[in-house]
Amino acid sequence: MHQKTLKIGITGGIGSGKTTVCKIFETLGIPIYYADDRAKHLMTADETLITGIQNLFGMAAYAPDGSLNRPYIAQIAFNDPSKLKALNALVHPAVRYDAKMWHESQLNKPYTLQEAALLFENGSYSLFDKIIVVSAPQEVRLQRVLQRDKIDSKAVLARMAQQLPEMDKLNKADFVVYNDGKTLLVPQVMAIHQKLTF
Q: How many domains in the chain?
């Protein structure tokens, strides 16, 4: 019997295939907190956060129906490092608190997974017992994002530049899943799962 549900962080560069790997963990009954999805939810549901975002980007940050004006915010944030930093300073603490509450509600599980693109960049990696990094070559990641998001390669490369270099992530990882399109994912996930549930 586990005394404590382990908190495992899972991260990787844009287009590395974190979500695909998470889906495999889900089939093993592991609860997963998708930080980006929760952040999107909180940005339209948490009044304090909404006010902070409006103060930062103006009223145009939200559409009349209350949904977030993503392209508008992304355009500003990815071209102005100070705005991006200020946005992260609003969103990350809200997500961190939400994640903590969620994790504490997951009882009798060997571990939970929290999927987040910027675990190392925002310093939250220190909150986890172990970190899994999903790794893929840059050209593979670039192709995946171009197909998925239908944006130009310059925009993708700008986002990649905001993230910690791949080698730095790998050096800090407790486990690595190689998602290069050639290496099978399921055996890699199973091996990690066994180590985390021994």
A: 1
